[in-house]
Write a structure and sequence with these properties.
Elements lengths: L13 E3 L4 H10 L11 H8 L8 E7 L2 E13 L2 E11 L4 H17 L4 E4 L8 H6 L26 H4 L16
Parallel strand pairs: 4-5
Antiparallel strand pairs: 1-2, 2-3, 3-4
């Protein structure tokens, strides 16, 4: 049964090849209250999504009044015996859930056009984007169906950080944090 992606939106979508200071601003507005995450500023995004040899990521944004309101990056890879779509990143400023929903729907439509077998995303249940992913049809995958086993761990090296490191709700992760996609 095909996934219903909802009505098209009139949000203006821009394809991005390089990342500028607008992305640093978007990250800082998105990450308010995030305890631990890789700093997804313009420099990092440009390195991670534009300059890596194994790239081929499609990056899209929406803007309001000259400032970015949402950003989604995706790719498709031949892995695990299939054609896998990956949502690499999904960011939005508070109040712009509709904009990131539009971008996520666009990424899923592109994956369908490109004949991906499945779409994967890393999104923790406490993330602000979690309800958006659920409404788009993403489900938690039972461990026995995961194509590979992942082990995530961290250790605080200074006592002042221990209370943050030990609580999963402090963390923000996405496929952007994976070095294999």
């Amino acid at each position: 049964m095909p996934l219903h992606l909802g009505k098209p939106s009139n949000v203006g979508i821009e394809l991005v090849q390089r990342f500028d200071d607008r992305f640093t601003d978007l990250w800082h507005r998105f990450a308010v209250g995030t305890g631990i995450a890789v700093e997804r500023d313009a420099r990092y995004l440009d390195w991670r999504l534009s300059r890596r040899p194994a790239g081929a990521y499609e990056n899209v944004v929406t803007a309001r009044d000259g400032r970015l309101s949402a950003f989604v990056s995706h790719c498709i890879r031949e892995k695990h015996g299939g054609r896998i779509g990956y949502i690499m990143e999904s960011l939005h400023v508070p109040g712009e859930e509709a904009a990131v929903t539009t971008l996520l729907r666009r990424a899923l439509a592109r994956m369908t056009e490109e004949r991906a077998d499945v779409a994967f995303a890393w999104c923790m249940p406490h993330a602000t984007t979690y309800p958006i992913f659920r409404r788009a049809g993403f489900l938690a995958v039972p461990p026995r169906f995961l194509p590979i086993q992942l082990h995530f761990g961290a250790r605080a090296l200074v006592a002042e950080s221990a209370h943050i490191v030990q609580h999963p709700r402090s963390w923000y992760v996405s496929y952007l944090d994976s070095d294999t996609v």
